Description:
With about 1350 residues, this protein is mostly helical. Helix 11 (about 175-195) packs parallel to helix 20 (about 400-415) and helix 13 (about 225-235) runs parallel beside helix 15 (about 255-275).
Amino acid sequence: GIIGEVILKQRLEFETLEALGLITSSKAFNQKYVKIKTKLFYKQQKFNLLREESEGYAKLTVELNKDINESCDAQKVLGVINSLIAEFDLDPNRVIDFILNAFEFRPQQMSYFVQLIKSYNCESSTLCSTLGFKFSSLQKNSGLISKSLYFVAAILIQDGLIAIKDLYPHLTPTNDEFEKEYKHSLVQARSNAKKINVLNPSEKSTSIESDISKDIEMALQNQKIGLCFALLSLCDWSHSRFIFDQLPMYSVASNQLLAVALCKILHTAVDPVYKKFAPKAANSQPYPQTKRVGCPVQCESFTDLMNDVLPICYHLGPYIYVDQVLIIKLLRIGKGYLLKCGSSNNQKDALWGMMLDLLNDCLIPSLSLTECNASLGEELWDMIKIYPYTVVSYNSHIALLKSKTKTLDSARYIMKRITKENVKPSGRQLGKLSHSNPGILFDYLLSQVQKFDNFIGPVIDSLKYLTSLAYDVLAHCAIEALSNASKQRSKHDDSTTSDWLQSLATFCGLVFKKYTPEVTGLLQYITNQLKDESSFDLPVLQEMITKMSGIEMSVETTQDQLEAQFGGDTLIAEGSFFTNIRNVKKSSQRLRDALLSENLAMPLCLLLGQQREKIIFGTGNDVHIKVIGKLYDQCQDTLIQFGWFLANQLHIEDYRKHLPPINILQQEHHIKPDIAFFFSRPMFYHAIQSKYDKLNDKNNDKERSTEAYITAAEACMGELIECTRCILPTPTWNDISIQLYVTFWSLSMYDIHTPTARYESEINKLTLAINSVDVENIAPSKRKKEKERLTNLMEKLKVEEKKQKEHTERVKARLSREKDTWFPLRTSKKDLRVLCFLQNCIFPRGCFSAADAVFCAKFIFLVHSLKSPNFSTLLLFDKLFSDISYIVSCLTENEAHHYGRFLCCMLETIDKWHRSKERYDKECSNYPGFATIIRKNEASQSDTSKSNQLEFEDYRRVCRKWHYKLTRAFASCLVSEEYIQIRNALIIMTKIVQYFPVIDNLGKALKNRVDKLQKDEKDKRPDLHALATGYAGRFLSKVSQMIPEEKFYIKEVTGKSQSNKSASSSSSSIEVAKSKVVKQASSKSSENSSTSASNVNSGINSNQALAKAANAESKNVKKETGVSDTTGNKKEASISKNLGSNSLQDSKKVKEHNKQSDDRKLKQPSPLIEEVSKKRKVQDESSPIEVVKRDKHEKGKEREKDKSRIERKRERPQDTEIVIPKESKRRRDEDVGDKLVSGISNTSSKAVRSNVESAKVHKEKNKGVKSSHKTDTTKVSTRGSRSSSPASNSSTKRKEKDSYERGRSPNHNVRRELRDDQKSNRKQYPLI
């Protein structure tokens, strides 16, 4: 086994071989040997033997194929060849063919044969033709060409013996045939790419070496590729480039054989410059300079790199993947250049762009052709991240189609089997695919996530094995998916976001929170969308902020969460949101850095503020109003969420640096004041606090600290006032001061309210958590750390609560000093102050957010509790509750939620005052906000005389009025056919159901309408049906707490008993006259008398006047009615007789009345309140709907009397008082509550006479109404009310018909429903 059989047969004698048994017979073997030798050496084909001498060619062959060494001289051999040509008459062209054949079999002796050919002095064309003939003849005969022949041609081309342009036409196939074949292969590759299941993912991939061996065989069949390979093997780039340029792009480099040869050239070229940026590479494999013709020189500078190396890389394209070491070298060189370029200057030269082309055309696509190589991906990312993200593109290359097919097939295989249980193995498989083909893989993953949202969790968990480059590609693929214009961003009803967009937004938020891809690209995309006035992609920004910072927006925020938002940062983090925000510190910082690095923070703020207005005014008429409301709410929520994020994450210096002043935001950027103040509010707080810290000494007492804070606030607010003055029209500051406007908009709930209950609740939770840690079975070290964390958190909450309490006290002290300037004093149209305050402050901010809605309610009660001069709390409540149907019609869905929360806070406090007289007396009875008169010339208006205050029972009547008006407004909205009006009404009613309705008959009227709405909208509008059903459920739980109307407030009892309610209308008129005269006399006596004697005389005189007035009243009624009623005459006669005979008794009553008036002076209501209370005796049996109808009938008669009343008011002295005007003439007699709010109270004698005259006019008006009705004692006794005359009825019907023809108001059906309900319940508790 040591020496092979073949060697023995060659060396040993035949007899020895026979003895060894290697051959059977030495004789037979010898005969066979002779035959073969003769055939090989002496037998030849017959050709042109007449002119050629075979001996000469035999000698030439022997001479050319003898052993060649260094001692061999080409000139001597050439002499022998020349002698053979002369001796045997050989053809010189045939001789050169023999020389090329000898060169082909021994290409390693290139220097010898090149020198021989040069010495032969053969023409270039002859040599090229001979060589071309050899290529074409071999292609025709066998189709296989030896590798050595390509090298012979390449050597001759490189040494200049032949020109490649002359040899190229002799090579096959032609350019047209080559291009056609290449295009056919591309078409075949595209078709295979569509058949994803063509390749088997379990099939093992072949190595590059095996692929190269196959490519060598394929290259030998294509003569142009073979020649190019031979040239590249000789490092001859200059001549091989000619072939590259002649053929389609990347068609030559797609052959791995050529790609490897070209990479070797690049290794040599970049070696010197690479060692500059990789010091450790000095000990790596050396690449010496090849001193051959056409080889690129080694690069010593970036200029050489740009001129010699990068053009070669462009021809190589993505097929540079065959040499991953070369890829890493180029990446490190590029990164070194970019860092050097960025540090030296900001100018982008030609090399900067060429490096970018190198990334796009070569390095990035080559990654998809490599097997999984995580380190290569990291190196690639280190260079890519230096470039701005906007210039890098990931365009797919056609040559990658096969790789795409394999990747898609593998991705589909993995995604079919991924679950929560196998996340790790599936994640590893996805990671391997992402190392080489991240773009293709993530496009498929995102398509699956958009279809099936339950994939989001497992896919997110499986992405932890990605490289930095893969994460960046994932972000790019997400942007590509979002920018797909072919997808609909809203559902078929155009009212909600599409499922694919919401799923993709959630996926993006989770990916950017858990991992570290670049956020800048996605933020820039959203910014560009807002520039194009498109807000459909805002859910992506919402999800990113929610997931990365923990700040979430939800309309259904609980009361505890809302209270937590009013505290400090620690309380907000612990109890303000649904999710735990402890693990978002790093992700929120990444989002902040991305916003600041690209300067996107303030542009996003401005664009969001502008887009909110464009949604309303820039949307076409073809868009449904429901869609506009959804987009508006979405933009508003994103704006608030983004503002909270900036306030929590940005340093105050960055905030001031980027945010313009208020006036610039409003005038130049057209930002509404509510948004401008929202973004600027944190800056105001820090400005005041920083100045306060400078002024305040730590050793100062409480008073000095408060003074320091007030000084700091005044200094900062002075600058803000100057900036704010131009926001609103100048006449606005005549109704409310700019100081109030700035104070209102610059404060927050943190400044005026400390959520003590929430602090205590969170501290109790932490205490329980600390106790539970001791019980849990955990390691001692972990137990100790957890207890320390909880203890530190508890201490933070305690310190934070104390700090906030001190801050709120300082703020309230500041407001107490400012309150006198808030509402300027005016001599007319006093209610404009309240309207201006509501319009410019309460309504805009009350609908802005849930926290701002609560702030508005708290601020109103704070203004009330501070006893602000010229501010009427009663009038503000009356404006709020008078008719909210107009406001309801203008709100979006979220604004309805916020406004409902605001009304709930208002009704909560009103209800507390209504339930407790002690609380009312404490918080309202001596406050100017509940005064029925506002003095003009008093020095201090905070100390209001109690005689001018609204009594508790009167306040309860006013509350009934407000409840009635709310009921009427909501009912009118529910009967409307407008979707927005019905939806908003149901939302607000649901928010305030705890405090409204509380009167059972009003609740019954609302419940009937809601039940009808449920039935009508069940099949038409399911969302309205769901809202109505939800409200009905809440209402049913509230029914047991409702009370009858007589328990809600106490009605004033008339002088007669309740059983005498059936008296005639004439007796009621007498009673009115009696009450007025008694009141007038008692009022005069209380003012003019100084002794008890004068009081008695005044009582006697008033009694006599009372009797006369009663008789006169009785006569007038008889004349007007003209109807003889025996029962009525008897009653009137008996009343007159009793009045005349019992004058002494009446005088005693007057004495007692005057005596009690002195004792109850502070509790005495205003004269008009008493007047209205007395008049209520007549109107007790009249329902509000009947009063409204009667008012319509009396409208014509009231006009002239109203004119005279206005003239008398103008004649009053200017220094007496400022009177609160009436709310509405049409509803003047609607109920007693109107008079209690808008009543007039005077203290001077002239004012008393004016009131008496006004009362007389009102009495005559009532008499006029009575005279137009027929007195029917039977109906009066049974119903206790007046029946209208036929003329009045016909007039009313005619008006109703006219109103119906003009367009019936929704109030029509509501009033009819309320009237029917009142009739059915009148015997129990009649409406007022």
